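call fold(seq) -> tokens
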Amino acid sequence: MPSVSNTPHADISALYLSHHGWLQGWLQGWLRKRLGNALDAADLAQDAFVRLLVTPRHFGTAPEARVYLRTMANGLCIDLWRRREVEQAWLDTLAAQPEALQPSAEHQAMVLQALQEIDQMLRRLPPKAAQAFVLVMACRMTHQEAAAELRVSSRMVGSYIAKAMLHCMQLETSKLAAPVSAPSAAP
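ret:
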């Protein structure tokens, strides 16, 4: 790995220059088979380096950097599959509705974004908490019905729902607190 200064940007720059070709090649080989698309592989390679810009890391050796990048890229691939599953479920729901009831394209995009955020939030919860949240909030079960389904007490269902709602509020708070980047001026 080339020597670089101790600044995080210099480390990332050197890491990008040293490993981007390898990572993209690996992605286009290993992940391309799974994704079926070279453009998705290239996007995931880029996303891996963007994540390193957001959360810089220092690697002692080239193999250490490659193991980290490979693991991160694999996780990004799994995330892509999950987003696509949610999107396909939404598209299937839309296809089952009469055309007269179809929401606008803007509304469809907003719903898809919300569904993906909820999916991410649910995946961060323990499985029973996520299940309880879906049963009560989406399936409109009572706490007693959800408790019977999950084989836990109604009180435990309430605890699960509270935990899920806290995660929802944290997600919303983080969205509100995220800095909005100003449009760049034209050169």
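The CA atoms of residues 110 and 173 lie 18 Å apart.
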